[in-house]
Fold this protein.
Amino acid sequence: MSKGIVYVILGESMIRGFALAAAIGLACTAFTAPAAVASSGPAPCDWEVSKVPAPFGYEDRSTDVKGTDSHGNYAGTSLRPGANTNDVVLWTDGKPRVVPEFAHLQWLQVADENSAGTVLVNGYLPAESRWTALQYAGGHQGAGTISELVAPAGYRTSNAMSINSRGDVLGSGTRIATGESVTLLWPTLAAGPQVIEWSVGFPQDLDDDGAVLFRDPTGNGGHVWRNGVVLPLEHRGKRQFVQAIRGGKVVGHELSSWPNAQAVLWDSTGAVAPIDGGGSAYAINAGGLITGQRSSLTGKAAVWRDTAFEAELPLPDGVSGVSELFVVGADDSLFSKSGSGPLRWSCE
């Protein structure tokens, strides 16, 4: 039978019946049709790289960025001209400023910076023959204030290593009576610092909820300590090195034979999964942005979102590679260092 157009003549009652059925059908469709599904996660970045300038009179190659407030400002150190020690440097809106308040200290190191712009500084006090750990607040707005991280009675502070968004600080110290090393945690929600024994492991990083990431000294993975409860991270038999924690997720890598390695991510339950095409993973932010190297520990600098590969990072002309990507801001700003000086990537 040939196909054609069939015309049907309907009576008035039939037309009304079909119209009512159509109206009911449209109403049901309006109530039951599923909403459009939004794409999950942020859109991929168009990464732009720039060189971080050293302060006037200082060398780019002797300059490091070690923390950011994720609002366009960052902090680090640069080798003091004519001396064997560093100066603390703050970059505000991209412009470097040497902080003179630390000039009396030696072997200065910046450990971290949080979203409030509080910078952790470690240094040696030659006048007192001891190490000290300090917080420097308000430096991006003008003359900042310095406060010392004091250990509880019977202990001595060795250094500070991480500060989270609410101001908790993770560090290490020693028990004066025995010389044993301990982990020190200065929580903002408690009256004083807490002491955590090193039987859990070596302190590595601090999450925004106060959870502490510990690494196993033998390279057999790590643990997450949260309010006194210890969560072991899944171990798959290879040597595992945990690096960072944020939003309950931990990144690191499994080493087979150097430089062959597999980047991995542990979720909030401690379960581990490989990161697609990753050789190493060094840092992560709360949005799941991870930095590391592709394929091996000597591969090209790259970024992932959780376990999914996103992009290799561009490099400036004349730069062939970078060291570990050690800073990831909450705004997805990234920092690392080449042989000629520090680099910054922004997500455009």
